[in-house]
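User: Here's a chain of 628 residues. Predict its fold as tokens.
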Amino acid sequence: MQDGKDIALGPVDAVAQLISPILSDVRQAEAARQVINAPAEYDLANPIQSSEPIWIEDRLYLVTATLVGGDFGHARLSHPRAPIVVTGLEMNSEFMALLEQRFMLSDMHMHDRDTRFENSEAHTPIRNRTGAITATIDWTPQQPGEQIIRTVMPWIMAVLFALLAATLLLYRIARRDAKRLVRSQRRTLHMAYHDKLTGIPNRARFEQGLSQALGHAAKSGQAFTLFCLDLDRFKELNDTYGHAVGDELLRGVAKQLQAVLTAGDLCARLGGDEFAILSSLSSQDRAGELAAEIVRRLSQPIRLSIGDHAISCSVGFAIWTPDANDSLELLRRADMALYVAKNDGRNCVRSYDGDMDSSIKAMRRLKEDLKTDLEDGKLTLVYQPQVRASGEVVGFEALVRWTHKELGPISPAIFVPLAEEAGLIKALGEFTLRQAAEDSLRWPGRKTAVNCSATQLQDPEFVERTVAIVTAAGAQCSDIELELTEGVLFRDEQKAQILLDALHQAGFSIALDDFGTGFSSLSYLRKFPIDKVKIDRSFVVALGEDPKADALLLGIVNLAKTLGMRVIAEGVETQEQWRRISTAGCEKIQGYIASRPLQPDNVVPFLRSNIPTLRIPHPDQNALQSAA
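Assistant: Prediction complete.
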């Protein structure tokens, strides 16, 4: 049969010889088969078959020979041999299609030769019963990797490009950050060793340089010089024009100092208006010349936003010696020389010598003695009368005095600055106020003037403490007049306004001391509740000698009276000065011509005595102005 239809035997005879080997295999298996005595429940018997791919008329068939027999029960052979059924399945395109569908392959086809050496396709050999390759089935293998790569390759490339771009960006950022870090480190290092305001080295850099110079000097024996300097009356300029102008001046000073230095020298700002210079100069004369040049340069006007301004400086220096191979000792010596320069009138140069140690020790001892005597209440007060031209005593100014147990009387010009340096000025001021308030009870109805320092006014509890001290002494605040200098007021105008208003409300009267010697005096008269103006003795001394002094005196008196303020001249010592002051319209004076300062016990007797009076005719105002 072929394709389910009967055919003639002729065509089959042609394949008889081809299929005889598999028929022989079946017969041999049949002969070797044994009869199976099956139990009640039968087992499935394995069929006897043999298959082989055979080429028939250029077509490949899968030929199978199967022995026909019972499948279950006892094998019952009715003939010596059982029939064999031979089937052939052509391995054509339809067969290939079934294989493609079953095994999910593509482009499956067959070759009548061995094509396994061809690499473009996949292969599986078809072998006959002897193992020889009869044909080869080929197909195009699926390559999911390539397809996946083709699908994802654009994304992979995009990711790689993004990673590359990110890497480049990160590299650039890292490089930029590294540069920024280096700049930051340099800036931090510069800031750590340089003054922010002036740009020159600071104290830390100075200490480092001093340590290096000391180490080099100790090894080589080569001396060097340390200069210490500060600006004279810098605080006055700072208080008058403000810190911004003070900063301008400090920057200008730093430039001037750098201009005089040579290579290898170090100039540093230690703080405030204090500067230090390390120089390789080793001789006294050369160091003195450099110090003098510094003083000369800084005495020249420096251009500021308020105009050109000249300021002086004081310089002290010390030359390294083997016995001063310590930074603290060398700095102490230069500071000591600077201290002497300032005490000798400022705007000068001093070099260290051994005698300075004993002088400084004496000053230190003097401070300690002042502190002890102040704590023990051994300081005293004297009172200088303030009188009218008619001789009437209108008040007293309290002046503190100190008599040292060994040195005798010490001038206030010496011990008051000592009190400032030793931090005793607040205690000294409170002592003066307390004693003056107690003594004022002896002369009721007359003002007692007490000087107040800038340090006292910085105390936030100054008003309360002042009221408490006066009240505890049994006096009235209205009996006390507080004398302030212009520099005190300029420190913080807003704070000064609040402070003076509070003092005024408490009952104190306010006097502006040393009027005309500071700055912005007219603005003070307008802004602050000032009751009295004290004309500085520098104007009084020049009366009759400098025509401008009379004009200034007249202007001050007229201004004060116009503003409703009382006015008094201090430091009056001669009849001519008294006459000119009275002629200008100032009726109150304070000075030796009226009386020297009095001990408290002598004040009441003085009030009972007759004070010389000065009665002069007052010319009309126009004539006075023209004369002035």
